[in-house]
Amino acid sequence: MAEETVFGKIVSGEIPAKLLAETERVIAFPDINPQAPVHILVIPKTTEYRDVTELAAGDPELLAEMVSVAKQLAEEHANGEYRLIFNNGASAGQTVFHVHAHIIANLEERSLLG
Ligand code: 5GP
């Protein structure tokens, strides 16, 4: 098991998050520090995997479920087009070592934000 992270605490309910989607094995919630008009995190409930490389090797069906939830959210919150970003390792920008996908969308609205 990976060490408990802030996302493990969101899964357990210790830290609140507004759930935008939930399946048996996956949840999604807005990023606390959004980098785009739509910035949603999709995470598995299990704390077993630190990054997408471990997840792909250990449970590819769970990875596919995360991608499926991401597509559904991009259709609900944007026009269905989106970036899906996984940071892998601290020097690549990963700060939370509980695998998560960043859904980034509606980038054309950046200009409205200044
Ligand atoms: P990473 O840099 O590891 O790929 O992404 C971690 C993301 O988690 C960051 O974009 C950060 O803003 C977000 N984050 C960190 N703590 C919390 C939190 O307590 N709640 C939410 N909703 N997002 C968080």
UniProtKB/TrEMBL annotation:
GO molecular function: catalytic activity
Enzyme active site: H100 (tele-amp-histidine intermediate)
Matching InterPro entries: Histidine_triad_HIT, HIT-like, HIT-like_sf
UniProt-listed CDD domains: PKCI_related
One family name in Pfam for this protein: HIT
Occurrences of domain HIT (ranges): 6-114
Residue positions of motif Histidine triad motif: 98-102
PANTHER family cross-referenced by the UniProt entry: HISTIDINE TRIAD HIT PROTEIN
Protein name (Swiss-Prot/TrEMBL): Histidine triad (HIT) family protein
Organism of provenance: Leucobacter komagatae
